[in-house]
Amino acid sequence: MKKIAYARAAAEAVQEEFRRDNKLVYLATDLQPDLRQEFGEERVRVTPISESAFVGTAIGLAGSGYRAIADLRMATFGFVAMDQMVNQAAKITYMFGGQARFPMLIRMSFGAGMHWAAQHSISPYSMYMNVPGLKIILPTTAYDVKGLLKSALRDNNPVISFENTLLGQVAGDVPEEDYTVPFGRADVKRVGTDVTVVALSRMLHEALAASVALEARGISAEVVDPRTLVPLDRESIRRSVKKTGRLVVVDEACRTCSAAAEVISLVVEDEETYARLKSAPQRVCGLDVPIPYSPPMEQYAIPDRGKILEAVLSLFPRVVK
Amino acid sequence: MDKLTKRDGKVTRNNAGLINMYRTMLTIRRFDERASQEVRNGAVPGLVHPYIGQEAIATGVCSNLIEGDRIVSNHRGHGHLIAKGADTRRMMAEVFGKKTGYCKGKGGSMHIADFGIGILGANGIVGAGLPIATGAALAARLDGKGKIAVVFFGDGACQEGEFQESMNLASIWKLPLLFACENNMYGVNTSYTYAIAGGDLVKRASAYDMPTASVDGNDVIAVREAARIAIEHVRAGGGPYFVEFKTFRWSGHFVPEAIPDTRPKEEIEAWKKKCPIVRFMRRLLEDGIVTRPELQKIEDQVMGIIDEAVVYARESPLPAPEDALDDVYSA
Ligand SMILES: Cc1ncc(C[n+]2csc(CCOP(=O)(O)OP(=O)(O)O)c2C)c(N)n1
Ligand SMILES: [Mg+2]
Predict the structure, then answer these.
(1) pTM of the predicted structure, to 2 decimals
(2) Quick check: is A120 catalytic?
């Protein structure tokens, strides 16, 4: 084991997969310099600021026997390449009757909390969850980001990795040896008995902090990290809720049509899980506003440990707040 | 005057190649006539964008391609696919929405692909094939085996951002990519003279620092020659090349004709007189490359192929409803 930052773990995943797979190509407007040094300008390419063109290039490479990483940097820039992601990457395997594979990885950083305002802050993964054909990963720790990116780079489908900007410098334990984290396998990041808190991306760390405060009040929270949104590990989430009887979903994205809404649906749609609920499931989400610039407003618009604590406590009326 | 019409050139001409081009053009014509008719008969669930009138372009361009070269097509794609060697039976079956079609009935006319022979697909989104072809060209370059990519797109696609991004990217990376622009004078009913600032696509393309040409897209020999020059340049590592092929679409934008065709009648009639197939046929006859009985034989052969495709399509089973669940992801 070694302790490295999330961003470093991600870079290692890419570097190690580049060594394994000589068909791998990196496309980005800004590059990891060490990657370019090691693998050269042909495979590690600086693109002009032409998101549609380089996402489309990744698709064309994929359809021609290569595998490209299209690094869009910020998720808000991704909207410029929506046609290539939604109409092309997601659909072409299907439209062509499965006759070709399109292995590619699209990386986007996302989230709020940097005081970058609306056009540089968004958490849009649920939009892409609504597009069949894409796989969506949401790595939360150094261990997960390395293992999930490796799985993504060995998958035969278009995968989008949403990497929260504020997680970049968060350090975590990573094994020395090669490993992968499989898709569709949620991780119980904290075992508990009284309430299930499903937390997405950076909100996991907020939820873990809140669970400490809950513990002090005698409430034992189980914190579940889905890790991948498509595929989504429905079974693990239901299993946890069946055990605790309570559910709070924490998602930095806007509340309406969020991944959090999907998590609640999959719980209440399941008779067996529904029957075990002791209280109505709750969502702690971003407000339905574009992310504002000024810190007091920005903080107000997104969830944090305090809001999580409050939401969980509301399920336990007899506990002293 | 074209070389073909010079009698002395005849001995060195590849007559079989010319006759093959004629057969390809005729196959495209008959395929789309028949597909259009089947749409009107109600046998086709969706719609078809006929390539009728533009056959010389796909045929002339693809006659220069070799195994391993890749093409990316657009919504008006049947001609490109046939010229690159697609199976007309599986194409027709796809148009009919049958399980035996190229895409098992999941794509229809606008999404036919055959990756096995380098067809990376037709595309229903105007301009969207350009970035994908840029990737295919980058793959060819990384392979380092002298293969190239060709992207077919219309005059209308040139007003999409994806056109500008791809032209620029292919140029700065010097990719082996032929931009084959089929200027059929209209995008639906909008004239290119209205839609294109300055009205000159070649001038625009030159701004991307690549060689350009503009040729009569209804003269298959001129198309083949322009494409030959362009492809030699591209294949040799000279970077991308843009060729505008001037042509005209005979039918309405698509069949069934749900959108009224407002293009001037006289213009349509004038272009029909420039039929690429009749023109080529006359030259083949004048040059003594084919005889009338031989032409009749080709016509019969082609009709046979198309009949067979329609019978295959008609008799093939429809997909099961739950087949809709397959192929969303690759294993
Ligand atoms: C992005 C996008 N916008 C609009 C359409 C609808 N549409 C389909 S074909 C077409 C005209 C395209 O014109 P052109 O590129 O000149 O090709 P042509 O049909 O003339 O062969 C339009 C507007 C579309 N499919 N995609
Ligand atoms: Mg046009």
Answers:
(1) 0.96
(2) yes
